[in-house]
Amino acid sequence: MGRWLPIRLLTWDVKDTLLRLRHPVGEEYAAKARAHGLEVEAATLGQAFRQAYRTQSHSFPNYGLSQGLTSRRWWLDVVLQTFYLAGVRDAQAVAPIADQLYEDFSKPCTWQVLEGAAATLRGCRKRGLRLAVVSNFDRRLEDILTGLGLREHFDFVLTSEAAGWPKPDPRIFHEALRLAQVEPAGAAHIGDSYLCDYKGAQGVGMHSFLVFGPEPLDSAVKCSVPQERLLPSLSHLLPALDRLEGSALEL
Ligand SMILES: [Mg+2]
């Protein structure tokens, strides 16, 4: 282990760490389709979305920015592809639904702050910790965080769209550390993805915590993350930081 530095910076994942969608994606898509006169099952759309999103992310990583796409175009194509896979082949009928969905997902009311998130962020600030966002997200994130009253807690919001690299690419973490002027050993990242958050941050020498929700953790993940780095909820973060600093003092 490297030399011990007190933790000064916490970087945060957003989706499913601080915020979640109020309704499942399939339901949002089905409701917008209905408003435009198209009846499609929410479950079918949900399944089609997951497939379209996977394919799009694979073919055009990080919103296809290096391939000439914009994040908006990238998302409109995901919606078109989702409806196509769900059996709606009329792209002209889907185009206004895609525009509407893009707008709606940028509205704070589409999102919900997870339990304990606001109190934990306030508690961290009270301790004098600096906070920043490191998120695989597009340009809409800043306004969403502002609308939900969370933006004020963060020194800066670094999205993969702005950085040019998505997590777990080490360059997005290095960019956050550069912006904060903090060494990796003086920073900890909190997120819900083992690969993107936990391993990504650890890979650049940061401390790392994995948040998990009510669903049981994948057993392979559970075996490879030390107990003291697992957070069953955000309210476990400050005690976990105390234990980390306490164990360092005993060294
Ligand atoms: Mg997440």
Automatic annotation (TrEMBL):
GO cellular component, one term: nucleus
SUPFAM superfamilies according to UniProt: HAD-like
InterPro entries: HAD-like_hydrolase_domain (IPR051828), HAD-like_sf (IPR036412), HAD-SF_hydro_IA (IPR006439), HAD-SF_hydro_IA_REG-2-like (IPR011949), HAD-SF_hydro_IA_REG-2-like_cap (IPR044924), HAD_sf (IPR023214)
Domain of life: Eukaryota
Parts forming coiled coils: none
Pfam family, one: Hydrolase
NCBIfam families, per database record: DREG-2, HAD-SF-IA-v1, HAD-SF-IA-v3
Family classification: Belongs to the HAD-like hydrolase superfamily.
Name recorded for this polypeptide: Haloacid dehalogenase-like hydrolase domain-containing protein 3
Source organism per UniProt: Canis lupus familiaris
Gene of this entry: HDHD3
